[in-house]
Design brief:
This protein is mainly alpha-helical. The chain has helices at 3-10, 14-21, 25-33, 52-59, 110-113, 116-125, 138-150, 157-170, 180-197, 210-222, 229-241, 249-259, 264-275, 285-292, 301-311, 328-338, 344-361, 367-377, 384-407, and strands at residues 11-13, 39-40, 49-51, 93-96, 99-102, 105-106. It contains 19 helices and 6 strands. The protein has a 3-stranded antiparallel β-sheet with strand order 1-3-2. It is globular.
């Protein structure tokens, strides 16, 4: 590898830095002009490049109120912290090189020995343990059923989860008890309640434990077909791998809400609102699913991608600027997807898309692509991937909220380990 190629591995473009920081490119230029970030030039290249290590460190700087490059409300730039701002770092999780860590443990390793419920306990308590997820009580289930009966039939799964979060908060008179034990108690019912809030498409199979039950119940909300063990492994793996991702945009929103002492339901709603953005990270799974649906056969792959480029559309779902290499979540999920059966013609289309984008742009798929591809291959309803993401990530958002409740100035509530 030449010196220039090695240097390119160590730097990123302004647009890549903007994606990593969750801001506009103009804001990155503002950071450079204020000497908050340094830019450089490569040989025979007039563009501005930034140190990958410096941008990654800047992404974990002390939290700041959102202000734009001109000082008005907009993208975040560092300012003096206030009593309601998030802390700089987090012990919950983070990215180190090519690895995603949950409480210092490699997230992909947890696929072998953990389950979603156990991983959630690790994120909330910092201690390995078994799942303690529990289904909602019958009165809550009845409330969720009546709410969903009022939703338009064309509602996306994410719309239903947002409505459910509001209802769950409104029906909990103790939602402002921000003690650790109370928040974890809420967290243990949240993912099962979210699954319960979605319309049932097929009778769920009986499961042997809470974790299998969660994946099985969720599959019955997303598919008419009875799941195979491999399909349940795929869905369970997606829940584990998406449970936490460090201080990304949706987590920063959740922490900002927690810093203002918002209740846990509102914290999750804040994270959900940001996560629903079509341009978040490498693109949403909803967008990926939509453009994959445009491809009728493997022979159409080059033409469909070419047509999208001609229209100026994004081929979303590739690249993840927060990693020095490929997204490890996507690599694991794509392996599970390949082994999960489903529509084999669509499996072939997904492989052809991944190979073509890699050969032409040297980009690997990210977790959003893996989610969208899962929905495409198994013919899940539009927006199913977003529902999987939010149900999974609710564990990480609550873990960050607990950390924020305990560190935010002015919080004098007792915190006991639960």
């Amino acid at each position: 590898m030449s010196l220039t190629e090695r240097r390119r591995d160590d730097v990123m473009s302004v647009s890549q830095a903007a994606e990593m920081l969750g801001v506009k490119p103009s804001t990155v230029y503002a950071y450079i002009s204020r000497k908050l970030l340094a830019s450089t030039r490569l040989p025979e290249d007039r563009r501005s490049w930034l140190s990958r290590a410096e941008v990654e460190a800047f992404a974990h700087r002390p939290g700041a109120r959102p202000v734009a490059a001109d000082g008005t409300a907009g993208d975040p730039v560092p300012l003096a912290t206030t009593t309601a701002e998030p802390t700089a770092g987090s012990n919950v999780g983070g990215i180190v090189g090519h690895r995603l860590l949950y409480r210092g443990r490699d997230a992909t390793d947890l696929l072998k020995s953990g389950s979603y419920g156990a991983v959630a306990e690790l994120l909330w308590t910092a201690r390995p343990g078994t799942s303690r997820l529990r289904p909602p009580e019958q009165p809550t289930r009845d409330l969720l059923g009546r709410l969903q009966d009022t939703m338009p039939t064309a509602s996306l799964p994410l719309d239903r989860l947002k409505a459910a979060a509001v209802l769950l908060g409104a029906s909990d008179p103790f939602r402002y008890d921000l003690s650790r034990s109370a928040v974890i108690s809420i967290a243990r019912t949240l993912a099962p309640a979210f699954v319960e809030s979605l319309p049932t498409r097929a009778p769920a199979q009986e499961a042997q434990d809470t974790d299998d039950s969660l994946a099985t119940q969720l599959w019955s909300k997303l598919s008419d077909a009875e799941p195979s063990p491999a399909q349940l492994s795929l869905l369970s793996g997606a829940l584990i791998l998406l449970a936490e991702h460090g201080l990304g945009p949706s987590t920063r929103a959740a922490r900002e809400a927690a810093a203002s002492k918002a209740d846990p339901y509102s914290v999750v709603l804040a994270g959900t609102s940001v996560a629903s953005g079509l341009l978040l990270g490498g693109g949403s799974s909803l967008a990926v699913q939509a453009w994959l649906e445009e491809i009728g056969s493997v022979t159409e792959v080059p033409q469909v991608l070419a047509d999208r480029l001609v229209r100026g559309d994004r081929v979303s779902g590739f690249g993840q600027p927060r990693y020095a290499g490929p997204d490890p979540r996507a690599a694991a999920m794509m392996t599970l997807l390949a082994d999960s059966g489903g529509d084999q013609d669509r499996q072939h289309i997904v492989r052809e898309v991944v190979d073509l984008v890699h050969s032409r742009r040297n980009l690997a798929p990210n977790a959003e692509f893996a989610l969208g591809a899962m929905c495409f291959v198994h013919r899940l309803p539009r927006g199913a991937g977003e529902a999987v993401f939010v149900i999974a990530r609710s564990a990480g958002w609550i873990a960050h909220a607990i950390e924020e409740y305990e560190t935010a100035p002015g919080t004098n509530l007792p915190f006991t380990h639960g």
